[in-house]
Amino acid sequence: MRSQFLIIVMLAVGVLCEKDYECKYGVNNDRFKCNEVGLYKKIQCRMNSCFCVSPLQGTIAFDTRTNSNTTIPKCGKCLDDVEKMFEKGVPENNTFVPTCDIVLGDYEPLQCDMTKDRCYCVNPKTGVAIKGTEKKLQFDSTMKCNGIEYFVKDGGLSIFRASAESRRSRFTRCKGDVDMGTTCGGNASAIQYFFDVDTQKCYPFKYNGCGGNKNRFNTRSDCTRRCMLMDHAPCALHSSPARRNDGFLFKCEDKANGPMSPENKPKISRKPINEPKLPKMNADGTCPAGYICQGGIFNSMCCDAKLDEYVNSQYSPKCPKGQSLYTSGDFNSAVLGKSCSHQFCPYNYKCYTNDLFAYCCK
Q1: CA 317 to chain centre
Q2: Which pTM value belongs to this model?
Q3: SS3 sequence, 159-172?
Q4: What is the DSSP string of 85-102?
């Protein structure tokens, strides 16, 4: 009985402690799991659902989302085939990668192979080319497949490039983990701020006076000004907004912030072009189902609704009965840190944690 218990525990630990590999090639910020060569694992789970993603770009197939994080979704054959392409490691640069749709992960009816300078129609379920449809690749042109007229544009085609890893770089000063430094004579400790790359926010910590690293700022505003990207996504925890299969964002209008400016409205081609198949959409018809429109600095974007609701609940922590929350600023908002070990609470306050943040009560 004891040995059986140990086996169960070891299996559980093995799952929980699965090694994290760096995602090198896509631009998805959702901290999805990647394999040893830096490509996204085809099946991802987050909160109360699982879904399929493109191994190369990390693009979600929205209609594969399940209602439980223990239910494995069924991915389209295109995603299966792309996954097999990378089973034996990273291919050569400029290898053609088929385009999968963002609905179920099936093949897009139009495939364009830049390595052969050809476009052709395929069966969406099998990826088999349809005879007599092949044409020379020509950007800014149209081509009809399955009754849908597609616009062939540069930037929407997939080939493998190892150099894509460089797109994930950040400002050097803002990349380091929090370092509280060491105590030393003559230098008093003080509350300073560090930038957290995962959430794209600045948090307080106690700096002991000497040493440490460069990811350290005197004020939260200075930290934000130096490290926050102006065009960062407004989605919770810096998660990635919903993208179409060509990598472009779903355009939406955040009603809370007024109408979209003319320069940011979706650009419509002069030629009438039918919309390729889309996933199930929300009531407004602007975002995939389960996503809401959030206003950013320059554009509004479609963000995961459940993740947004969950994170918002964590921004309003509750103190034990009879204790008051440490707040700051004109809006009387809670002072939040990343960890109680960062010792940012004032004297006489005790540090508590919820799922995401640390906070102070007395």
Answers
A1: 25
A2: 0.65
A3: EECHHHHHHHCCCH
A4: HTTTS---TTEE-PPBPS
